[in-house]
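step 4 of 6: structure.
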Amino acid sequence: MAIHSNKLSATQYEKNFSDIHPPFETKDAALVEANRCLFCYDAPCMKSCPTSIDVPKFIKQITTDNIKGSAHTIFSSNILGAGCSKVCPVEKLCEGACVYNLMEEDPISIAKLQRYSTEKAIANKWPLFSRKSSTGKKVAIIGAGPAGLSCAHVLSREGVDVTIYEKEKKGGGLMTYGIAAYKVTPQFCKEEVDYILSIGGIEVLYEQELGKNVKLEDLQKKYDAVYIAIGVGLARQLDIPGENLEGVVDAINFIYTIRNTEFGKVPVGDKVAVIGMGMTAIDAATQAKRLGASEVTMLYRRTQEEMPCTEVELNIAKLDGCEIIWLAAPKEVLGTEGRVTSLVAEKMTLGEPDASGRRSPVSTRETFTIEVDMVIKAAGQTPFQQLVEQNHLQHKNGKILVDAAATNLAGVFSGGDCVNGGKEVVDAVQAGKEGAVGIIKFLFPHSK
Amino acid sequence: MANISSNFLGIKSPNPFWLASAPPTDKKINVLRAFEAGWGGVVWKTLGSQVKNVSSRYSAVNYGGHKIMGFNNIELISDRPLDINLKEIKECIKLFPDRAMIVSLMADNNKESWHEIIKKVEDTGAHGFELNFGCPHGMTERGMGAAVGQDPEIAKMVVEWVMEKATIPVITKLTPNVHSVVPTGMAVVEAGTNALSLINTIQSVTGVDLDTLVPNPYVAGKSVFGGYCGPAVKPIALKMLTTIAQNEVTNKVPVSGIGGVSTWNDAVEFMLLGASNVQVCTAAMKHGFRIVEDMCEGLNNWMDEKGFKTLDEFIGKSVKNIVHWEDLDINYHHIAKINQDSCIHCGLCYIACEDTSHQSINLDFGKPYNTYSIKEEECVGCNLCQLVCPVSNCITMEEHRVAPESINWIEYQKRGLPLNDH
């Protein structure tokens, strides 16, 4: 029993990390599905999309063989529409609202159709957007994640010259570094970022990190406005004994390693415990299993009723063979010679509803122990509070406070996970659009 | 079990479903397969004048993901040697003596040619003729097909030639490429035809290829007007059939209904509007001969449910229900009602009414689901909302008479009741 890499053959890795939601194989297959769409008015799917993609319109455009128009409809609302078609929890967004659900019929495969049109646009490098002539205004964006890219694209279309400062070596943010590899490949993420940047007017400077080699005050001087889209990234600590033993990792780092390394080089335990039941917890658990862990156990201190992930996501974990233990909170990690050997957990029960409205877990004081050699912490992420404070940004628990995307600092705007505390990619895209609107108003106060 | 056997001019068939004169009936192998599948009869593909076909021959109109809502062809009458056709007709009759064998004819435009072909075909033992006065392409340029059917005088003359010679029943097939089928219908009935059949295909262009810019069907970079048929033409056929069923001259002879018949339901509608039997082509070309199974079973079940024991009990039963506009009851009024329990909130009724009708539907905004309800005082009862609603029986039209008394347009005017008052 040990943590090591190269547990599987190359073929097995390839199989385990192949696309979990395969695309339509043929145009005819896409047409069968597109023609099912009722073309609702004031469509519930559209109203359930944080970026308000005109879903009936883009699907109708597939049926009329106007794929360029379809991709344009999607990208006009969501420039990361291709990535979102792969990573959005559509079961609680557009597809969850599809009126077919009310007929007890399968909802339209909106994500799959969105993927159909957007992948064609990216593969063929269709130039669907053009820039207005340069206004001479310059904006710096910190973070080339979904919020930053979305903001940059809108600004560039409006003739603003954008420079993005990105701390990593690649753009895409969480899309590139924080999502299960069987949903989006590094290759796809690169193509998506390249496609977004192909509009021109956006320069990305990599390995530029706020608080390290980038200073906000310098950017404020050099640019007409600044947009902060630094996301969240710190894994919430468990604050239990044994948390520093070798073999305890946080899910963000674990997934980051998977996304940056060949699968065969990612170390993984034989018996892995994953703490938490959010999307990231699922991504960590399923990928640990797919990397070759023989047993993966997910522990969540509440019940399925309260879990943050969707049922679809939970089912991925179950189908991958992950064990789920509800009402279990980690109490202590035990080890020998500095390495994890087991996890002690407390059995919980549900008490009164807490601030979030969910019934809060209460300890029964009864404990149990599971033998593990790896513990992955996925109990949520926390904002970069220290960094935010250093830069004199008003915040609440580290989440930057904004009013119509404007922070307390003149000309400094913000949005995405660093403001909302961590939501879906699609929420960050919308935040980026709203940030751009705020910036445009700030830069051109007299235009309409 | 109802009796679905048919007797058309004494020509008996086990059911009222015949295959129309067309590619599916142009040779023995097809016809035997059709009889094995259960078709009641066939109208053998038109024999007569000498022709040469081109390639391609068909094109279609698809709709909403469904193929062949409409279909057109530029194929001519039979291009096989006459003696082979005659030999095969004889063999088919021998193998399936209980099925109807009608032979479609289109001779060159002189009496001798018609008499010659009639004699030869009668020698096969065929049960009847169908005169092809309807083919809208290829033959018309030579004064045949629709060129005959479009001119009542010529049609009458040809039918007279035929009736001089024929000893078996004669059905005259009418072209729809006229403003009304009645004048030709009357002329050929007066000339002695024993029955009518309608409609033949409608001249059409199904579409233009947006890459090559050449219309369909494609023949070496060019196209021609083709004969349109299939489900799309059914409403036109039903209207023309009704005019024949309502005319005092033409309704004296039986009619074989043709035009987009695809199911037993379609067939019943044709028969309710006066057809004694129906002929099918496009649906068989799309799905094969096996469709006749459900046609027979469905017809039988419907007749049992309605209590009809024979076809004659319902043939023509709906003809009287189509009247002139001025005979309609102006005091009849109905209003749409949305069943909120079955509504799926798609908004299709709302946008149709709001954009294109009478703004009679309320929208109460909800996220993500809006609630839609009818403004009863605004609703004119047009049916549009019900027609666009994707849920069966979600929108119903509820009767709200203006007054108990039935009043038609003539009486309405006579009493000086208000006009343009909506």
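step 5 of 6: annotate
 - Chain A has 18 helices and 17 strands.
 - Chain A has a mean pLDDT of 96.
step 6 of 6: archive
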